[in-house]
Amino acid sequence: MTSALVYGWRTGCALRHVLGLFLFHTRSDTCSQRRVVWCKVLALVSCVRVCKRHKAPMGLVSWLKSWISSDPYYTAPPAIASKWFPEFVDKLPEQTGKVVAVTGSTTGTGFVCALTCAKKGAHVVLLNRPSERATEAERRIKELAPQATVETIPCDLMDFASVRAAAATLKSKFGGGKGLDVLCCNAGVMALKDQATSEGYDVQMQTNHLAHFLLAKEVFGLLEAAAKARGEARIVNHSSGARHMAKQLEAPYLGANGGNLGGDGASMFLGGARWVRYGQTKLANAVWTQALHEKLQARDSPVKAVCAAPGLAATNLQVTTHLDGGMAATWIMSMSQSAEDGTMPLLQCCIGTAHSGEFIEPSKGMWGVPAVVAKRSAKEIDPAATKLIWEMSEKACGEWKL
After folding, report:
1. At 91, phi and psi to the nearest 5?
2. pTM of the full predicted structure?
């Protein structure tokens, strides 16, 4: 009994001190999310000190760590003002007469990219899985860019048959010489459960890379037609700083091994399997861009292959991951930039100044204006990796002779 009372008293001392400190520093109704995060961190440091002083159970520290890292109310990205986007977008060239197709354009970077291209005069094709969000995205873009031509073609990247159907629709609409100026392979999912698509591939790898490889392969003739008519065309891939999580591209993640790729470990910082798979997909985006660039250069093609990364941008990507159980550390989003600022590298690749083979990301890594990566990592341009990704992608999607 005595030991139980002492245990309770020591735990109570620690909790009273820590929670009192937290409530004092966040008592204002207008307390910013960033301030709450730093107060939580301060509370953790204080908790460790108090636990040592009162010899309270260190299990309390583990509990507080969980409290700091999780936010059960994270159901929407934080509202963050754009710093660079307005000035950046003013400098982008007009796109009248061009056709831009964007995957994953219901929200986030895809929506911002599609809307910006529409405002610049492009004929915009939204390639989205049928949903209320897809219908609403088209409606909003037409409302915000009333002069533009905007349409939706159903495209579910987790279903190769749907991707082929979307490609067939694109060819029927833009064949005959008009062509497709930009294929923006933006859509992506992050740190989802270890599950397979109907084709047997990891849901992340199929969505983030394989389905885009298939789409590009099927509509490549349209890109060549646009390049012939207007001087150039572009295939734009969307990678991430998460490519650095992977030491090298590995074949099992590209094969039909969905559901058998490590399980559902969710630690972003300690090698959770969800994040390992995500890192592989983002490295795949970068490696495929390099492989495609090399093949296009070899045939002296006016079609460009370029790649972007958004930095840390506040979009629904993190919300979806959090609700799926893959991202507890939502506190990191207090340090993010706006979706508009995060879209600048993607827009630079799509309609700004960009050369084939370039990788463009924020100048400061997670934030900043778009900048070309001066020196690519060896794993992104490794000949063995570019050979591997082409062979494995063809195995999944069919031969693509370039």
Report:
1. -90, -5
2. 0.84
Radius of gyration from C-alpha coordinates of the chain: 23
Which residues have CB under 8 Å from 191's CB, separation 6+? 204, 266, 268, 272, 274, 275, 277, 278, 321, 324, 326, 327
Q: How far apart are CA 194 and CA 91, in angstroms?
A: 42
Amino acid at the residue 28? S
Whole-angstrom distance, CA of residue 102 vs CA of residue 80: 24
Q: Does residue 93 register a pLDDT over 60? A: yes
- Would you say how long the chain is, in residues? 402
Q: Which residues touch 48 (CB under 8 Å, ≥6 apart)? A: 61
Last residue in a domain, options 20, 37, 69: 69
Looking at the DSSP bridge assignments, the partners of residue 337 are 313
Residue 56: which domain range? Answer: 2-69
pLDDT digits (tens, 9 = 90+) for 42-59: 555 555 555 555 554 545
3-class SS of residue 124: strand
Q: Are residues 246 and 312 in the same domain?
A: yes
- What whole-number distance in Å separates Cα of residue 318 and Cα of residue 337? 13
Measured CA to CA, the distance from residue 248 to residue 280 in angstroms comes to 8
Strand partners, 236: 184, 306
- Helices (H), ranges, 26-84: 33-54, 59-69
- 42: exposed, middle or buried (Cβ count in 10 Å: 0-12, 13-18, 19+): middle
